[in-house]
Design goal:
about 55% helix; chaperone; SDH_sf; FAD assembly factor SdhE; SdhE_FAD_assembly_factor
Length: about 100
């Protein structure tokens, strides 16, 4: 019996790379309402998409759960992660989003 594909939050090996279909779903999930956020996310995917792991995907998805203006404040370093977002994986992804090459 085939098991269903793991969702971003259910991956068995957090350091396993995402396959092409999962990366596509994650890219779609990361579409934002603010152009500024989309620019950060697009640069991140250009730099980090191929080796993206489930661990990074989960951290990115947690950031994408934020309202657009809160996400933009984090991306522009107007504020730092708080509460549930204080996590080393989220921090690594946020730092990569902030520093992705133009």
């Amino acid at each position: 019996m085939d098991l269903p594909r793991p969702t971003i939050s259910e991956a068995l090996d957090p350091d396993a790379p995402l396959d092409e279909a999962d990366r596509g779903r994650l890219r779609w999930r990361c579409r934002r309402g603010l152009l500024e956020n989309d620019l950060f996310v697009e640069r991140y995917f250009r730099a980090h998409e191929a080796p993206l792991t489930w661990r990074e995907a989960r951290a990115l998805a947690r950031l994408m759960d934020l309202p657009d203006n809160d996400l933009l404040d984090l991306l522009l370093a107007r504020r730092e992660p708080e509460g549930e977002l204080v996590d080393p994986d989220v921090r690594r992804v946020l730092d990569a989003l902030r520093s992705a090459p133009v």
